[in-house]
Structures are given as C-alpha cells and as structure tokens.
C-alpha cells in the first residue's frame, strides 16, 4: 500500500521550511578528504596521530580473546561492566588527581545524568548563563530550582551589554539565596547549592575565573554546602600539565565537587567521565539514569581512550 504525505509530515515540512527561510536549517555534511577543517573539536588531531593509532592496534592485538568483544552485551549494571572499564576509570582519575571516576558514553549523557539527580528538593542549581545545552537538559530533569548568573561575572560589576540584564553576578545570586525566604537552610548547610561552570567556553574560548568562583562559593557557604561542578570538555587534553584541565592547573582538585572530562574533542575518541568522590560515584551508579539505562562502552572504545591517555602521560 502506498501512503500519501501525512498531515504530520506536512507540518514538519512547513516547520523546516520556516527554519530554512531563517537561515537556521541544520544538515549533516561530510568533510571532503584533504580539507583543512577549522570547525573540528579535535584540537590536537590525536584521532589521526600515527603513534596513537599504532599503539591502539598493538593494544587490540595483544588483548585476549575473552576480553576483546565488539559489544559489551548490556548496561554496566547488568552484564556490561568489565575489568577494563573499572581499570580505565581508576587510571583517568589518577591522571587528573581525583579520588574516583565514573565513565559515561558521551559528555551529553554525563551532564544529563549528573545534573538530573544531584540536587534534592530544596536545593538550587546556579549556572553560568552560557553553560552547555546538556547541562540545561539535565537541570530540567532535576528536583532543584534553577538560577542563572551573568557569564563569568563573580563579584565585578555586570558588563554593559546594552539593555539592562535581568540576571545578576554569581556573588549577588548566592547572597540572594542566603538572605531569602529559605536562607536559614542555606546558612546552616541543610540545603545545597550546585554551581555549574565550564572551564573553557566553546563559543568564545574564554576561561572561567575559577579561583575567584571557588573563593566566592566557599565564602558564602562555609558549611561546605556549596558544590562546584566544572565541565572541562574543551580543556581536556591540552590545558594545563599534560592536558589535565583548568582545575588541576590551578590546584583546585580538593575544592571542586565534580569535574566532567570528555574524550570526543582534543582526546580524539568518544565518551566522558565524572571525577568525584567514591560516595558520589556510588550515588550516580544508583541514580544517574543515562548510565543505568544505556548499553556500556565496548572494549575497543575503552582501549582507544586508554591509549590516548597513555600518550598524554608520556609527553614531557
């Protein structure tokens, strides 16, 4: 039976046509061979590095038949976990000087999983207005209230950007929480505040004033109920000693609650990891739905990530 165009297809076609008229229509493209690509996130070209490719192939060839499976067979909570996955988590955590880590299949799944379950009722998620879309999607699933602050503005005057902004700098937002209706809960540590920033913002390439942010949060919440989450996606692999990221470069590992490092940009692979405490890791295993309900990483990808990190660790 031949079906005609449905009313829904017609609706979608009109929506797409309108987007096209606005010059905003997205398309999948393929980069022609030999093209110099200035839009890629693969800043170091590690995905095509000859030494890394040779080391990766050697790792695959030396793997026992029992370890080398094309697919994991299920989620990590079923039968998809492996010695290779847990060893890689420990190695990456040690590289970034963190107590523990938990792998996710992508940076998007990492942020949606982490931000959707971190906050409890009564908690607040405070975020830089230019934070990545994946963080926004995770926060929408959260039990916490959301409050933005002006991009990279901690205690300074808000930049003059034309019409008056409705949002404030970070310190003013935190002060509002402490003085507000539920302020007692924030002052005595019963309610938590999660502050979300990126170390390097992809669209502008600017760095977060992370040391100042840490001082601000700790000053407003001396009971240690202010928790900073740093998305290091665009810093991983190149910023700081051997590409450990901005948090490590500033020596703030013990003062940042969680870090997200992704492998699909400078690392030239796929996937991501949350660096956190062992307790937070166990909590995410139990409540991060983007980990619980998805198929685990296959061994070939784990081997690729491990090879890229070994390459970084060997650099002088």
TrEMBL record:
Domain annotation Aminotransferase class I/classII large: ranges: 36-307
Q: Which UniProt keywords apply?
A: Pyridoxal phosphate, Transferase
Q: Molecular function (GO) terms listed? A: pyridoxal phosphate binding; transferase activity
BP term (GO), one: biotin biosynthetic process
UniProt keyword annotation of Transferase present:
yes
Write out the similarity annotation: Belongs to the class-II pyridoxal-phosphate-dependent aminotransferase family. BioF subfamily.
Q: Which PANTHER family match?
A: 8-AMINO-7-OXONONANOATE SYNTHASE (PTHR13693:SF77), CLASS II AMINOTRANSFERASE/8-AMINO-7-OXONONANOATE SYNTHASE (PTHR13693)
Name this polypeptide is given: 8-amino-7-oxononanoate synthase-like protein
- Organism in which the protein naturally occurs: Emericellopsis cladophorae
